[in-house]
Write a structure and sequence with these properties.
The structure holds 2 protein chains of 2 kinds.
Chain A (H helix, E strand, L loop, with lengths): L3 E4 H15 L3 E5 L15 H5 L4 E3 L4 H13 L3 E6 L2 H4 L3 H8 L2 H4 L9 E6 L14 H5 L5 E3 L4 H13 L4 E6 L6 E4 L13 E4 L4 E5 L2 H15 L4 E5 L2 E3 L4 H10 L2 E8 L4 H12 L10 E5 L8 H7 L3 H12 L1
Parallel strand pairs in A: 2-3, 2-4, 4-5, 5-7, 6-7, 10-11, 10-13, 13-14
Antiparallel strand pairs in A: 1-8, 6-12, 9-11
Chain B lengths: L28 H26 L14 H8 L7 E4 L4 H5 L5 H8 L16 E3 L4 E4 L7 H14 L5 E6 L6 H13 L3 E7 L2 E2 L2 E2 L11 H5 L4 E5 L3 H19 L2 E6 L21 H8 L3 H11 L5 H24 L7 H4 L11
Parallel strand pairs in B: 1-3, 1-4, 4-5, 5-9, 8-9
Antiparallel strand pairs in B: 2-3, 6-7
């Protein structure tokens, strides 16, 4: 089998196709699924290929739809819920946090809500405070959930498949600002989500940058620019935020002595703090040449006007400057 | 405060009505005996739990459903182990009606590893999927959309199984219930919503919470077939459940069963709650005791000559003896290992769909 060119969105779509073809237990439920412009090119024509029974476009009921997927998974199905915007998924918090995340523990490991909940970070374009949030840190705080944030085209496909094949509830978070990336993908090889974790995607010796999702993309771009100045940046893509394994970050920081965490969420009590805390707990303070640094959104809801948006969101140049400030 | 509340239950909510012995004409005596003995079992088990909570042997909260046994027993008559049943915080009866193994319930409320949920759940989180009991949880209405999903799964699986969820009148005030009724209807999901309308949510009477005491009005609004019956009449409950469940099994989609009842204990633990219960009085409790589902069936059976006080004494004595043995055994059982805090957060299966 040859490799095939994909962008991030079509890679997600190919994961859906693979799962729906290979596994009769898989179905998809959510809003906008019969109108694929809702979800970029990531769901195109799935309803036509697999039928409206398996690709269920729902009433405007995030809470019931998500809870129903949890229930279907308890009864042997493998549902994928799609929330075209993470902000609306907040309506479904009981089904995610009280139910899906806790049934295994509450019932002594006898119940496994094997549901995948895909939620999309979809921001910019003056969409404002309720159409822009990246809430991965919330879900990373909930034991029992697995939180997956693919940043590469390959991960967009392969981690989706791994999420659905995993017996636990998974929050799979993709980002519309990543959809144009392109990559040649080999045929699918199923991987185990339990065995996945943070991965070093660029090796370097001067500064460790840790990111997830779109923050990883920014970090990669910054690394390329910095290499022109002779600065060797090591970029670690978190990929899996919960359960969190910080070991490769710790080893990297021991080597570089510098840690920058880039995160597409807001600052306080966010995942960037978890990365820094878990690293600092595990290394000798002398191993750090400079205090660690965070680059995140400010502690404010997303503004609406494009002028303020430019100020609000982290840019590649911000990452470049932050790295340089660590090396001064 | 203006009172908007309308009585639309046809008098089912009036404590002094519907207290006659049941009409058991043409009913199979064996079925009646199984109804009666299972209700007596559930009552005996809950009374023992109430006492053990009062004397401190049970450390966690217990929500007792004594007085409401006819609902679980009458409904469960029409279920099979491949169906998908969900409960809530007051679900001892829902489980025991499917699986009368009260030793495992005792172990669970004591937090012992031999319990239904391996000692990780206690009274409010019960699981026994082999009997069809998929789970009960104490977030009010939390299992309602989950049951709809289990019903959607049954549709995919084409096995004519149904899902069934027990909720109270209080749950009808949660938004997700209305989303779930709508979704169930639009998906034609084989799910039965069973409302145990005991007129109270915690301490609050339904007239202080809803403009009507008829919760079936929401079934009507969603074009879901419904029935409203005396929840303390096990024969009526079973008959109404049979029709709704069978229709659902054969492709008619959801059903809604409203059963008017009353709990003899307060909201939680062994007390009457007449002091904190708004509109809950000792007089009402006494009147509802005369409407007891066990008493009304027992008297009817004795009058018909198919049962005797002697037989009832015998099964109660035997039950009490078995309760004592099961309780002692559960008391001596081990607690879960300390490692179980972490070991069951995620599934233990390594990869994939089996």
């Amino acid at each position: 089998m040859k490799s095939k060119k994909h962008n991030y969105g079509s890679a997600i779509c190919s994961a859906f196709e693979y799962l729906l073809e290979e596994y009769p237990e898989v179905f998809v439920i959510g809003q906008g699924l019969w109108s694929p412009w809702y979800v970029g090119n990531s769901m195109t024509d799935l309803d036509k290929k697999f039928g409206k029974q398996r690709i269920i476009d729902t009433p405007v009921s995030e809470s019931a739809s998500t809870g129903a997927a949890v229930g279907a998974s308890l009864a042997g199905m493998r549902p994928i819920v799609v929330h075209p915007r993470m902000d609306f998924m907040i309506y479904a918090m009981d089904s995610i946090v009280n139910q899906a995340a806790k049934w295994s523990s509450m019932f002594g490991g006898q119940a496994n809500p094997s549901v995948t909940i895909r939620s999309i970070i979809n921001r910019g374009g003056e969409q404002g405070a309720q159409h822009s949030q990246a809430l991965h840190s919330w879900f990373a705080h909930v034991p029992g959930l697995r939180v997956v944030m693919p940043s590469s085209v390959a991960d967009a496909r392969d981690l989706m498949i791994a999420s659905v094949l995993c017996d636990d509830p998974v929050i799979y978070i993709d980002d519309r600002w990543l959809y144009d990336q392109e990559e040649d993908l080999p045929p699918v090889i199923e991987i185990s989500l339990e065995e996945q974790g943070p991965r070093c995607i660029i090796q370097g010796s001067d500064v460790t940058i840790v990111g997830s999702g779109f923050a990883t993309y920014l970090s990669e771009k910054a690394a390329a620019i910095l290499s022109n100045d002779g600065i060797k940046v090591e970029v670690i893509d978190l990929r899996i935020l919960n359960p969190f394994d910080s070991s490769i970050i710790i080893e990297s920081v021991k080597k570089t002595g510098h840690l920058l965490v880039v995160d597409s969420g807001t600052l306080s009590a966010g995942f960037s703090a978890e990365v820094i805390a878990s690293t600092c707990e595990a290394i000798n303070p002398n191993a750090l040449i400079k205090p660690p640094k965070r680059l995140t959104l400010p502690d404010a809801p997303a503004p609406t006007s494009h002028v303020l948006e430019r100020e609000y969101y982290v840019k590649v140049s911000d990452v470049v400057e932050a790295v340089k400030s660590l090396l001064v | 405060m203006r009172n908007f509340s309308k009585n639309e239950l046809g008098g089912l909510e009036i404590p002094t009505k519907f207290n006659h012995p049941l009409d058991i004409n043409n009913k199979d005596p064996e079925v009646l005996k199984s109804f009666l003995s299972r209700m007596i079992l559930i009552r005996g088990v809950e009374e023992h739990i109430a006492l053990s909570r009062k004397n401190g042997l049970i450390r966690g909260p217990v929500h007792l459903g004594a007085g409401q046994e006819a609902i679980a027993v009458g409904v469960s008559k029409n279920l099979r182990s491949s169906d998908r049943v969900f409960g809530a915080h007051r679900s001892h009866a829902h489980l025991l009606a499917l699986n009368p193994n009260f030793y495992k319930l005792f172990s669970e409320v004591l937090g012992k590893k031999t319990g239904f949920s391996k000692g990780m759940g206690g009274s409010m989180h019960l699981w026994d999927k082999p009997s069809g009991f998929y789970g009960s949880v104490p977030i009010v209405s939390g299992t309602v959309p989950i049951a709809v999903g289990a019903a959607i799964a049954a549709k995919f699986q084409k096995n004519n199984d149904v899902a069934l969820v027990y909720i109270g009148d209080g749950a009808m005030e949660e938004g997700v219930v209305h989303e779930s009724l709508n979704l169930a209807r639009i998906q034609d999901a084989p799910v039965i919503f069973v409302v145990e309308n005991n007129l109270f949510a915690s301490h609050m009477h339904i007239s202080l919470r809803q403009p009507s005491n008829l919760t079936s009005r929401f079934a009507i609004a969603n074009h879901i077939p419904h029935k409203v019956v005396d929840g303390n009449n096990v024969i009526e409950v079973s008959k109404a459940a049979e029709e709704l469940i069978n229709n659902s099994r054969t492709g008619d989609g959801p059903g809604f069963l409203e059963l008017v009842t009353y709990r003899l204990y307060g909201h939680v633990d062994w007390r009457d709650d007449v002091d904190v219960g708004v509109k809950r009085s000792l007089e009402d409790i006494d009147n509802w005791k005369a409407r007891d589902p066990i008493l009304r069936l027992s008297i009817a059976m004795i009058d018909a000559g198919i049962w005797s006080t002697h037989q009832e004494e015998n099964i109660k004595n035997e039950l009490n003896n078995n309760i004592k043995i099961a309780w002692e055994k559960a008391m001596n059982d081990p607690y879960p290992d300390k490692t179980s805090i972490l070991s069951s957060v995620y599934s233990n299966n390594s990869v994939g769909i089996n």
